[in-house]
Design a protein that fits this description.
Blueprint lengths: L2 H35 L7 H42 L4 H12 L7 E7 L5 H9 L2 E7 L2 H9 L5 E8 L3 E2 L1 H7 L5 E9 L3 E4 L10 E5 H6 L1 H5 L5 E5 L2 H10 L5 E5 L1 H6 L3 E4 L9 E8 L10 E7 L6 H11 L3 E9 L7 E8 L5 H13 L2 E11 L1
Parallel strand pairs: 1-2, 1-3, 5-15, 7-8, 7-9
Antiparallel strand pairs: 3-4, 3-11, 5-11, 6-9, 6-10, 12-14, 12-15, 13-14
Helix pairs in contact: 1-2, 2-12
Bound molecules: prephenic acid.
Organism: Pelotomaculum schinkii
Protein name: Bifunctional chorismate mutase/prephenate dehydratase
Pathway: Metabolic intermediate biosynthesis; prephenate biosynthesis; prephenate from chorismate: step 1/1; Amino-acid biosynthesis; L-phenylalanine biosynthesis; phenylpyruvate from prephenate: step 1/1
Length: 380
């Protein structure tokens, strides 16, 4: 037989497979209806084991592994389909629909915004880029920003989540699980760090530099090249500049911004002390309620996965089959639990598409922990 004839045989088999597959999915729809009416869960591990044992027996030793893989895929597809059928009644689908319909309104220009740090901070710069008329409230730590939004003290909050040179702001990710909030926008801010000191101080006088951990990480090469200078961590780059301005010492400098040099009447000893010029920090803007503004094209979710081989792979394949591009995947240990992890995903997707909402509902129905963090657009 030549390849053409061999393929004809295969095409006939494929046809029968597709017919049987659609027949199986129709049967699944009937099972789903029964499960909804009788409040049965979609997943039935015992039934899956039973089916797999039977499949192994029928397929024989040579094909057993392949047949089991095929049936595990069939279970995944049938559970996806059942979760999709369930999503019509899902609270999440209704909330998303309400948030997208209700907010034909534009992103506000005026708002009360909670920021970490003090006057002149990078959070403030990001905030002023995001809102034309913000009223800022400064807090000492990230947790207080989450709390101010959660308690309704501020309508919005701004938090740094990652930097192109120093990576993820882990402290913010660790707080996400503890607080109720929604991401309504994200913003990328170009960061140029400068070395600031009091007027008349020269670089050779400097014995100590103060700054935030992230800024210190972003300027590691400059600091390594000057090992004689002691480095001290500070809660915020703007607070570090303020500290230098208020100190009487002439051997102290801060890694901070040009804005802070002006604000705190300091001199710039050296400009652009970060390792690379393409230094960007991404901030998220959060609110208490789910608000989805027109143009939203990114989605963030938080979830935990069962300790089972292939569970992350199965999840990733769902994104891949919808052609969705993952832009961030971060895993963090669950505090108080041994080796259990929370996963944070950012991906590009339109919340206005039914297939996206179906995927979110499917994840919510099938995972023990799933939080929809929001759908939003990013400002550059
Ligand atoms: O039998 C069921 O309860 C089904 O939902 C069908 C099915 C399957 O595809 O065979 C799907 C999910 C369950 O975990 C077990 C089996």
């Amino acid at each position: 037989m030549d390849i053409k004839e061999l393929r004809e045989e295969l095409s006939q088999i494929d046809l029968e497979l597709v017919q049987l597959f659609t027949k199986r999915m129709d049967a699944i729809a009937r099972i789903s209806k029964y499960k909804i009416q009788n409040n049965f869960p979609v997943l039935d591990n015992e039934r899956e084991r039973e089916v797999l044992n039977r499949v192994a027996e029928i397929s024989g030793e040579k094909m057993e592994t392949y047949a089991k893989r095929l049936f595990n895929t069939l279970f995944d597809l049938s559970k996806s389909y059942q979760n999709q059928l369930l999503s019509h009644n899902s609270q999440l689908a209704q909330d998303i629909k309400a948030a997208t319909c209700e907010l034909a309104r534009q992103f506000p220009s005026k708002a009360n915004v909670a920021c970490q740090g003090t006057e002149g901070s990078y959070s403030q710069q990001a905030c002023e880029k995001l809102f034309s008329l913000p009223t800022l409230m400064f807090f000492n730590d990230f947790e207080s920003v989450f709390q101010a939004v959660e308690k309704g003290m501020c309508e919005y909050g701004l938090l740094p989540v990652e930097n192109s040179l120093a990576g993820t702001v882990i402290a913010v990710y660790d707080l996400m699980e503890k607080h109720k909030f929604h991401i309504v926008r994200s913003i990328r801010l170009r960061i140029n760090h400068a070395l600031l000191a009091k007027k008349s101080v020269v670089f050779d006088d400097i014995k100590e530099i103060v700054s935030h951990e992230q800024a210190i990480g972003q300027c590691s090469e400059f600091l390594k090249a000057n090992p004689q200078i002691k480095v001290t961590l500070f809660s915020n780059t703007a607070a570090a500049a303020k500290y230098v301005a208020e100190s009487s010492r002439s051997d102290l400098a801060a890694i901070s911004s040009e804005t802070c040099a002006e604000l705190y009447d300091l001199d710039i000893l050296t400009n652009n002390v970060q390792n690379r010029d393409n230094n960007y920090t991404r901030f998220i803007c959060i609110s208490k309620d789910m608000k989805i503004y027109p143009g939203a094209n990114k989605i963030s979710i938080l979830l935990s996965l069962p300790h089972k081989p292939g569970s992350l792979c199965t999840l990733l394949s769902k994104f891949s089959s919808l052609g969705l591009n993952l832009t961030k995947l971060e895993s963090r240990p669950v505090i108080g639990k041994d080796f259990e992890f929370m996963f944070y995903f950012d991906f590009d997707a339109s919340i206005y598409l039914t297939e996206t909402v179906n995927l979110l509902c499917e994840l919510e129905n099938s995972l023990s922990k799933f939080i929809f963090l929001g759908s939003y657009s990013e400002i550059f």
